[in-house]
Amino acid sequence: MDISELTPAETRVWQAFPRGESVDFRAEEEDPALDTTYGAERTVRARVLRALLLKAPQEEGEIAALKLTGARITGALDLKYSTIDAAVRLSHCQFDSVPELYGARLRQLSLRSSVLPGLDAATLRVEGPLRMTDCRIQGPVRLSGARISGALVMERTEFTAEDDSGSALWLNQASVGADLWAPEMRAHGQVRLTGASVVGRINIQDAEFDNPGGIALDAQNLTVDAHIRAGCLRARGRIELRGARIPGRLDLLHARLSNPGDTALRASSCVIGELWIRRGDRIEGALNLRRSHIEILTLEPEMLPERVLLSNLQYTVLTPHEPAERRLPMLERDGGPYEPHSYEQLIAAYRHVGDDDAARLVQLAKLRRRRTTLVWYARLWGYVQDATVGYGFRPLRAAVWLLSVLAVGSIAYDLHHPRPVKAGETPDFNPVFYTLDLLLPVIGFGQESAFAPRGWYQWLSYGLILTGWILATTIVTGVTRTVSRQ
């Protein structure tokens, strides 16, 4: 490019570049943060910056860098497939056209506090960090397949899709060599992180993902080597984490997730060290944790929605410690067929902390839920076992039944003694032991064989014998089931 064709503003930038000096076009007498006017004295053509980055001579003993602040950049900055050895810092700038960085290789890129109509930087390579702090981007940002050796910083940046159904940020298959730092980020449209990998942490605290009725954050098969901090996150639309690998902590403290009529959070088939869902508003939409492996699951009952999908979920510790009565409802909100695995996981979690009473309550609830899937005669037998001995977990209930029936029989036979079978050869009649003889199928006191009741008293004896067999069978069945589980 002929230097004589440069404007005064472009000349300043051209001369500062070889020495790595900064050029700030913001008015010195005003607050730079409030200065948003761009006249000719602050306008730089994109093709001048392109020529500068690709062809400008280096100055011996100096480190070249493009450090431009407060400029209006006209035309498209086309750096596709280029290799730029100098650091590029374009802060507080306004771009008239979408920068084209597809396949480019840069040492460092900073767009801090700039306004852009979008960014086309798929497969971009950055040797250092990529900074987009406080940017406002009114169009899609395409960083699919990007390789960023340093951190990706998007703190307080606002992304807006072209239309309501479009994507605001594409980071599919991107690789970040340090942290992905985006607290207080705002995204109006879908954010895509499918297949992305982050060596450090992801910080999206106080972030907002807004895509009602669709997927707000698509992070399927995401890999994070450390934690995801998403405290106070606000999401309208689905958070999709299926297949994610997060060995550290996924922190959703004080989060507000809303996607009524559909799934609000899908973290199925994931491997997560710790998942925190607590101290926030109740989730609006389904919670799907199917087939995931979670070491420590922190789940407050107050945040659970009407539908909770837990099929084949595996966890070691469930916190905070809650009574079984507060945990059981979440196992009944699947809406699908009976799943014994969900009950077994909750039983194991209670046993892990030594709460055997809560574990027994969950076992009882499991048997009652299973009873609803059986044929009618099996359900009937189940009701009998439940009413008499609580499937073996309520053994004292059998004693109450036995004493009650014993009292009824003893009173009835005391008022009307049955006749002796052989007069003069029978022992003295005892109504209590006679009733026990009828009730207990194994033990005999010699009363039943010596006396024969008549009329409805005979039918009462039949009823007592049948009741004794039922009680004995249910007790043996329940005790056997309990012992086998121990």
Topology (elements, then pairings):
Elements: H1 8-16, E1 22-24, E2 43-45, H2 46-55, E3 65-69, E4 72-74, E5 83-84, E6 87-91, E7 94-95, E8 105-106, E9 109-110, E10 115-116, E11 119-120, E12 125-126, E13 130-131, E14 136-138, E15 141-142, E16 147-148, E17 152-153, E18 158-160, E19 167-170, E20 175-176, E21 180-181, E22 186-188, E23 190-192, E24 197-198, E25 202-203, E26 208-218, E27 223-224, E28 228-229, E29 234-240, E30 245-251, E31 256-266, E32 271-277, E33 284-288, E34 293-299, E35 308-309, E36 314-319, H3 324-331, H4 340-352, H5 356-371, H6 376-389, H7 395-415, E37 419-420, H8 431-439, E38 451-452, H9 456-485
Parallel strand pairs: 1-3, 2-4, 3-6, 4-7, 5-8, 6-9, 8-12, 9-13, 10-14, 11-15, 12-16, 13-17, 14-18, 15-19, 16-20, 17-21, 18-22, 19-23, 20-24, 21-25, 22-26, 23-26, 24-27, 25-28, 26-29, 28-30, 29-31, 30-32, 31-33, 32-34, 33-35, 34-36
Antiparallel strand pairs: 37-38
Helix pairs in contact: 4-5, 6-9, 7-8, 7-9
